[in-house]
Amino acid sequence: MSSPSLAHPLTSLRVCVAADAEAAAEVAATRILTLLREKPTAALGVATGSTPSPVYRALARSLQSEPLDLSRARAFALDEYVGIDPRAPQSYRSVIDAEVTEPLGFDRRLVAVPDGSSADLDAAASAYEAGIDAIGGVDLQILGIGHNGHIGFNEPGSPHDSPTRVVDLAEETREANARFFDGDIDRVPRQAMTQGIGTILKARSIVLLAFGSGKAEAVARALEGPIAEASPASALRRHADVTILLDKAAASSLS
Ligand code: GLP
CB of 200 closer than 6 A to ligand 1? Predict the structure, then answer.
């Protein structure tokens, strides 16, 4: 069971410390299902990485016991590697297909992933941003957080009003993600196309999840450190509707 969401004393964010990652994932899944029941055409912002996986699994379990037609819902992925074959298992297109589109029954045509293999990356990034705006924006954005506080692939130093664009990945991000490339950092792309922090902040609601002691410092900096470009996730404190779902280890550095 999770504790009730509490307003964090130093921020406007709601913080919920769950017993474990599975319990936190259930809370996020319930938020998503409540939205999709009320608004079957809702737009979900979907993240990749290890953190949101239990959310997608919890959603799939719920849909088995209580079916809901998600074929009219939209999804926008946060980011994609630049230069990766979209059919490679490490591409975020493949991950979203395997974890979101297929198991949850989204219509593939309504699931967008930034086009990191475009011949004109800047145009593709602008088109992605315009696509989100054109459907009226994301209703609920799911986020993880990097060890260095990144959200999407917005590394420290990213402007808090940045749009979807191509970015260079920090070495520590490439090291962290080498686990998806057989541990070989040389295979991890050096660039990505990511929704900007400004793009993320346009979502009507945001749920950020973080699990494990390795994320504790990043979470504490985001919630209790200065709101600054050095701390991408601190930008979430500029938004009026953000929920942070943590396990105990990820909450362990909060004051
Ligand atoms: C990745 C993604 C982020 C993700 C973060 C943490 O590189 N681009 O969207 O939130 O890093 O990943 P994980 O959840 O695997 O720790």
Answer: no
- In ligand 1, which atom is closest to the CA atom of 177? 7
Q: Say whether 53 sits in a helix, a strand or coil.
A: helix
C-alpha to C-alpha distance for 183 and 202, rounded to whole angstroms: 35
Q: What are phi and psi of 138, to 5 degrees?
A: -80, 135
Q: What is the pLDDT of residues 167-183, one digit of tens each?
A: 999 999 999 999 999 99
Q: Which two structure tokens, joined as six digits, stand for 96?
A: 């979203």
Across all residues in the chain, what is the average pLDDT?
96
Burial tier of 45 (Cβ tally within 10 Å: 0-12, 13-18, 19+): buried
- The tokens of 14 are what? 């709601």
Q: From atom 10 of ligand 1, which residue's Cα is the shortest distance away?
A: 144
Tokens standing for residue 199: 């793009």
Q: How far is the CA of 177 from the centre of ligand 1 (A)?
A: 8
List 74's β-bridge partners, or say none: 43
Residues 91-102 pLDDT 10s: 999 999 999 999
